[in-house]
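Renewal narrative, Specific Aim 1. Our central claim is that a sequence can be written position by position from structural information alone. The example that follows is taken directly from our test logs and has not been curated for this report. It begins with the structure tokens describing the chain, in the order in which they were read.
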């Protein structure tokens, strides 16, 4: 196995290790998600998370983003880091908000009071201030007016030039989008015990919405997910 692949495997195992305290399911889920979802590696390889930042993670699940970034920083500080990768960021503050009680319980069991995980609906929770707002695979579960309201509030929570990272599906992508949509239905059924209606947009409409809410936008196709219609949007507050 190539050296970089061995490093990534070790990093996944380090990031998932705290979830052993939350039970076998939470640990196995962490291993599978961190290894299988390319967004985690992209955050590091493309240096999308700035150093010395405060992160607000909306719909944070069991806190995998925090676990991943903490493991990356530890590996970097211990000299276990690929020479061709950018510096692993230091996160100086992390606050996650999650509605699903089970996910919240697993995250709290894994990290205790060392990680700020808050139960609540992101449509009503106070956002406070942050340097980076993360909304991964969440917005399409919310009605269109709520999507816009959350993005406007996220913009208000950021300083000028502050960063929003969000992954969305492109409703104009044909068959790959239909596949993504059915997987999202399945995820909703597993997490909430019922199918939830999806409120999807074409990529151009997502871009237009973000601009209306005060952001400039860059796009990053999801490497390793060519069969799907997901795009990572890198947005910065400009208004």
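The sequence written for that structure reads:
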């Amino acid at each position: 196995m190539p050296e970089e692949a061995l490093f990534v495997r070790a990093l996944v195992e380090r990031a998932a290790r705290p979830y052993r305290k939350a039970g076998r399911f939470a640990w196995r889920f962490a291993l599978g998600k961190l290894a299988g979802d390319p967004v985690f590696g992209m955050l590091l390889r493309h240096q999308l998370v700035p150093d010395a930042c405060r992160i607000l993670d909306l719909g944070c699940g069991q806190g995998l983003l925090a676990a991943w970034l903490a493991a990356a920083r530890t590996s970097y500080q211990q000299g276990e880091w690929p020479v061709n990768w950018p510096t692993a960021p230091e996160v100086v503050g992390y606050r996650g908000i999650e509605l699903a009680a089970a996910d919240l319980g697993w995250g709290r069991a894994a990290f205790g009071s060392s990680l700020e995980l808050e139960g609540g609906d992101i449509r009503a929770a106070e956002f406070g201030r942050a340097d980076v707002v993360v909304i991964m695979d969440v917005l399409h579960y919310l009605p269109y007016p709520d999507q816009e309201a959350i993005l406007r509030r996220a913009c208000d929570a950021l300083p000028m030039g502050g960063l929003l990272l969000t992954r969305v599906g492109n409703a104009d992508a044909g068959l790959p989008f239909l596949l993504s949509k059915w997987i999202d239905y399945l995820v909703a059924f597993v997490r909430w015990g019922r199918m939830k209606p999806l409120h999807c947009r074409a990529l151009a409409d997502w871009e237009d919405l973000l601009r209306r809410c005060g952001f400039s936008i860059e796009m990053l196709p999801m490497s390793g997910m060519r069969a799907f219609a997901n795009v990572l949007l890198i947005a910065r507050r400009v208004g």
